[in-house]
Amino acid sequence: MKIKVDGISKQFGNKQILKSINLEIEPNRIYGLLGRNGAGKSTLLNILTDRIFPNGGSVTVDGETIHESDELLGKMYLMSEVNLYQKRSRLQDLFKATRLMYGGFDDVYAKHLCDAFGLNPKLRFGQLSTGYRTIFKLIIALSLPVDFVFLDEPILGLDANHRELFYKELLDSYSQHPRTFVISTHMIEEIANMIEHVFVLEKGEILVDDDVDHMLSQAYVITGPGETVDSYTEGLNIIGSESLGNLKGNYVFGSLNDDREIPDTIQISRMDLQKLFIHLTSEGSTVE
Ligand SMILES: Nc1ncnc2c1ncn2[C@@H]1O[C@H](COP(=O)(O)OP(=O)(O)OP(=O)(O)O)[C@@H](O)[C@H]1O
């Protein structure tokens, strides 16, 4: 089962939020959906799961429009900041209701997760702190028998220990039952090792649609004396730079010119995903 997003556009009032987005989401992969605040990530995830309608374009799964198929929508789950639950409902009853809605729910795994996170399922939703509301929603997302799990800012309010635990549980769960996860978060460093493919949304458009390894294999930091760095990187795709006294670092995205001799005084190292994202999405940078 593959999701195909074809020419999706969305306007709110006269503001164009998404501009003809095209992408494909393959089975059994972990994706990162990255973008600055207001880039349109939640809007896209809401359209993918039919919570809001686009102004143009289509979302299909193996050729079938999701909008017309409850069966396909039942294979997707979007966990988002929105609280869909009544405050007085007990968590254990919400688990049961979720089972009825989706036709399945892994109670044993949900219990394991409740124990691991220290969440008492007898509590009412309204009694939970912000972090535990997130944990409850994550438990639902991980325990459902769906093929596509969309997580919109899944670590809202989680402390560092709970974030670590969530990443570990997600990977364990993925290796036991491979399915697709699309994770939208600003904690890029923390998920960088987990995601295989990345979509970067910038001002309503897809700026990057690439495997993480491939993307990072062309992301370099060239450091050394300012003049030498500038002359070595001349004509390359420089997406940012930093200076400290006479020392300079130019961030290059794209291939280096192999014919160019590397001066002894400069150093070439790899960029990490977070740095690459920051420089790609800062004003004035370009992707080639
Ligand atoms: N229901 C709505 N009505 C009007 N404007 C909206 C609505 N929902 C979203 N927007 C606007 O659309 C733009 C994109 O919002 P969206 O929530 O998709 O961004 P995002 O990438 O998820 O941002 P963040 O990282 O800050 O959560 C924003 O300018 C937002 O104000």
UniProtKB/TrEMBL annotation:
Keyword Transmembrane (UniProt): no
InterPro entries: AAA+_ATPase (IPR003593), ABC_transporter-like_ATP-bd (IPR003439), P-loop_NTPase (IPR027417)
Domain called ABC transporter: residue spans: 3-228
Gene3D superfamilies in alphabetical order: P-loop containing nucleotide triphosphate hydrolases (3.40.50.300)
Record key words, sorted: ATP-binding, Nucleotide-binding
Keyword Transport: no
Lineage: superkingdom: Bacteria
Gene Ontology molecular-function annotations: ATP binding
Protein name, UniProt field: ABC transporter ATP-binding protein
Source organism: Pediococcus inopinatus
Upper lineage: Bacteria, Bacillati, Bacillota, Bacilli, Lactobacillales
